[in-house]
What we know:
The protein is about 40% helix and about 10% strand. It is α/β, with parallel strands linked by helices and about 375 residues long. It folds into three domains: about 1-50, no CATH class; about 50-225, NADH:ubiquinone oxidoreductase-like, 20kDa subunit (Rossmann fold), CATH 3.40.50; about 230-350, Cytochrome-c3 Hydrogenase, Chain A, domain 2 (Irregular), CATH 4.10.480. The strands form three sheets. Strands 2-1-3-7-9 form a five-stranded parallel sheet, sandwiched between helices. Strands 4-8 form a two-stranded antiparallel sheet. A two-stranded antiparallel ribbon has the order 5-6. Ligand FSX binds next to helix 4, helix 8 and helix 9.
Amino acid sequence: MMELNLAEQLARHGISRREFLKYCSGLAALLALPPGSGEALADKLGSVSKPSLIWLSFQECTGCTEALTRSYSPTLESLIFDFLSLDYHHTLQAASGEGAELAREQAMKENFGHYLLAVDGSIPLKDGGVYSTIAGRTNLDLLEEAAKGAAAVIAVGTCASFGGLPMANPNPTGAVPVSRIVRDKPVVNVPGCPPVPTVMTGVLAHFLLFGALPELDDQLRPRSFFGETIHDRCYRRPFYDQGKFAKSFDDEGARNGWCLFELGCKGPTTHNVCATTKWNGGTSFPIESGHGCLGCSEPHFWDAGGFYQPLSTPVSPLGKIAVAAAGAGLAAGAAVAIANRKAKSEARAQHQPATVDDLERKP
Ligand code: FSX
């Protein structure tokens, strides 16, 4: 039977050309493509054939897959995800046991050099990697084998990108992120615990369109999605600039929708698109629900000093400047920008992923 391309499959699922164009225009804007490129993107994306995607799950909670597949239904994002040839995925595959492992080996062999490898979860290295094994093989062994034939590797979620919860102090399994293991293939980090589904599918769409990963920042994150902080685009930002802060979750400030900075919001030091794309089809995001950002897409967020502690001592000394500046009605935005730079530089010092130069080295 002739294989349908993406546009034909979307039509079969009742997605009109108009809806597809709308999605592509939004995606083009998120990917920072030139204005008006939505239609070209739709034409190209609509005609791609299905590349093989092999998805390995290591030390994680399955939240990343849940976020991607259950965000709301049916979504264009999830349909695009479906139209990759998903040849191996623990949670989603029908096969099990030896049959599943054979499918993985066959997909790697048949698509060597061309398949996409997605990894969620961190990799335990302590005690020979015994803390997480699949079919009797360590995560490290499976990752090294699968990375050899991959065109690119996508680290899905904060665990795969930065170590996440498994790597939190005292890191009992010796967990490390994907970029500490894979050094000779393009690696993109899509952090978030879990990551925003639109970002995940945006990275996949970029690869389908251009055969390459999008431009990355110094943490190997797609610059177009992680170039700004939550705080930069937060709808509560005017209250921050006016020095209007909720002091508790049930005070008058909270009821008035004032800034959650003093309740521990990590928006000023967290890079992600939650404030613009939001979750569940653009319905809401944590800050809109009345809870501060936890900073889940940044390195070391579990160890960063408490979810409900304001960005001040001892985590980020410059957070103090932000609070003081806001309180004094000074240039709080400038103070936060300084705090951001300091936080980034501290994060870089602690976390040393492959460099962008590494990514440009072809296999
Ligand atoms: Fe980690 Fe993902 Fe958080 Fe969970 O696969 S990023 S614990 S949402 O599941 O890896």
